[in-house]
Amino acid sequence: MTEMLLEVNALSVSYRLRGGVFRAVDGVSFRLGRGRTLGIVGESGSGKSSLARAILQLEPHEGSVSLLGEPLEGLHGEALRRARRHMQAVFQDPLASLNPRMTVRAILEEPLRVHERSLTAAERLQRARQALRRVGLDAELLFHYPHELSGGQCQRIAIARAVICNPALLVCDEAVSALDASVRGQVLALLEGLRREMNIGIIFIAHDMTAVRYLCDEVMVMEAGRVVEHAARDELFQSPRHPRTRALLDAVLEP
Ligand code: ADP
Ligand code: MG
Question: Which residues sit with Cβ closer than 5 angstroms to ligand 2, an ion?
Answer without folding.
Answer: 48-49
